[in-house]
Each structure stands twice: as C-alpha cells, then as structure tokens.
Amino acid sequence: MDKHKVFQKELGKRAGCMKMLKRSVRELTRSSSSSSSSSGGGCSGGCGSGVDAQRLQLQMEELSARWEAVCGMSVCKQGRLEAAMRQAEEFHALVHSFLGRLSEAEKTLKYGLGPPEERSAQQCQLQLQLWVEAAEEALSERDGEPLPDGVQLLRELSRQHAEFMEEL
To answer: Of the chain's two ends, which shows fewer C-beta atoms within 10 Å, N or C?
Structure first.
C-alpha cells in the first residue's frame, strides 16, 4: 500500500510534466503549420517540418493514451488495495474474536465449569435422572397390572397412556 502511494505521488509529479509537454507540442505544431503556410506553399525548408509536426502530434497522442491508461490502472489498483485492506481488517477482527472464544473454551475444558454453572448443570442432571427413574418405576408397575375387561376402562387407560407419552 505504501509503495503504491509513493507511485501515485510520482505520477502526480509527472502530471505537470505531461501538461507542459502537451503544451510544447501544441505550440510546435502551431508554429510549424503557420511557418509552412506563410512560406507560400513552397518546399523551401518548410516541407520537412510539417511532416515532423504530424509525426510529433501522433506520438503525443499515443503518449497521452498510454498516460491515461497508466493513471486509470493506478486508480483501479488503489481501489483494489483499499478493498483488500478492508477485507484484511475484517478477517483480523474475526480471527481475534475466534481466538477469544477458543481461549474461553480451552479454559472451560481445562478447569471445568465455574462453580455456579457446575452446580446448576449437576442439579439439572440430577432432576432428569430422578424423573427417568420415576417414569421407569411407573411403567414397570403398570406392566404388572392385569388388563381390564371393560371397554370404558380400556379407553381411560389409553388416554392416560397418551398423556404420559406427551409428557415424555
């Protein structure tokens, strides 16, 4: 990025030279065209300068086109460099965030959960274990009971079973 800034400063310095060069070529082509027209159209020393002026003008146009191309590429490169810099900054922020989370996860794995979090997790696990044991006990009691003969009683047991399954 710094090298490109230095390059752009150099281009800026050369822009003045390009303007001066264009002005000089314009003046030369004007003076050669006015001197060839004032000589009455004869070829007494003026014919070569007209051809030279045309060639000089063509070279100046080519130089100007190349100058514009270089300036355009420089601006384009500056835009790409700035976009790359923004992406690098975003990437750096994401890496920093990731490393922070990774450090926290490493501490958790190394030292375990903190005391309040650990107690809360253990309580949840104990409650779940008690509930599973109670559910298993209730199921085993029901399995031991004989099936009733009445249709109404079967419907009631089916409803209770459906409620129990919903709770699970």
So the answer is: C
